[in-house]
Amino acid sequence: MKEIIINYIESQEEEIVRLATELIGANTVNPPGNECLAVNVVEKYFKTHGIQYDIFEKIKGRTNIVGYIGSGNPILLVACHLDVVPPGDGWNTDPFKSVVKNGRIYGRGASDNKGQMASMLVLARFLKENESKLNGSFLLVGAADEEKGSSLGMKYLLDECKVTADFAIIPDVAHNMRMIDVGEKGALFLNITSHGKQAHGSTPEKGTNAIWDMIELLNQLKNIKFKCLSHELFTPPTLNLGTISGGVATNIVAAKCEA
């Protein structure tokens, strides 16, 4: 069966590229998410190939889709997320219009996580065509909100929508998909606001610069030593400063700074 599946997937390369291109073209940068745009692509594919599905939304537009193939236990759940991080700088092409070059697809989400979703959709089609041979159920999830903690995605599906499984596979970007992980580090997101006192830039002594105070704090955080020990399966804890903004004009002492 393994060889049959591999040969089938390889024969569907053009279809996988087509699906990945459509998914990449759905701008689902989180925030705001708008995963409904990518769900439209998945839903159309499910309908075309007779795959039953449900759609779940905790907030309008923050859409999840779950496809069902087979029946009974055990239940294998495969989850790909449909949201992406902002494209950032350095692109030579539109990040939401995929480009195929030298055997690679370039576009926001190509490797995290829409390329994987495209491949899983083709796998779902294969399993649907061979549904009578399955000893159990296969669930394919297109999830929202993974990039911001999954409270509108997998957590919502598991805690509030009664989506359950005996086993799960998450085909995400870690180790370039060449190694199996059995766990993942958690994440803590902090928003910090520094408040100062506004004054004219020519008389800074009359104010309190919130940016300078923030810089002092951030330098302390940069040198923090984590007390917890890393688990043997994970790399050590890390720290990242993602954004910083403050002030309203170059000639005004900043009364507020956020990071």
Automatic annotation (TrEMBL):
<keyword id="KW-0479">Metal-binding</keyword>
<keyword id="KW-0378">Hydrolase</keyword>
<dbReference type="GO" id="GO:0046872">
    <property type="term" value="F:metal ion binding"/>
</dbReference>
<protein>
    <recommendedName>
        <fullName>Peptidase M20 dimerisation domain-containing protein</fullName>
    </recommendedName>
</protein>
<dbReference type="InterPro" id="IPR011650">
    <property type="entry name" value="Peptidase_M20_dimer"/>
</dbReference>
<dbReference type="InterPro" id="IPR002933">
    <property type="entry name" value="Peptidase_M20"/>
</dbReference>
<dbReference type="InterPro" id="IPR036264">
    <property type="entry name" value="Bact_exopeptidase_dim_dom"/>
</dbReference>
<feature type="domain" description="Peptidase M20 dimerisation">
    <location>
        <begin position="182"/>
        <end position="259"/>
    </location>
</feature>
<dbReference type="GO" id="GO:0006526">
    <property type="term" value="P:L-arginine biosynthetic process"/>
</dbReference>
<dbReference type="Pfam" id="PF07687">
    <property type="entry name" value="M20_dimer"/>
</dbReference>
<dbReference type="InterPro" id="IPR050072">
    <property type="entry name" value="Peptidase_M20A"/>
</dbReference>
<dbReference type="GO" id="GO:0008777">
    <property type="term" value="F:acetylornithine deacetylase activity"/>
</dbReference>
<dbReference type="Pfam" id="PF01546">
    <property type="entry name" value="Peptidase_M20"/>
</dbReference>
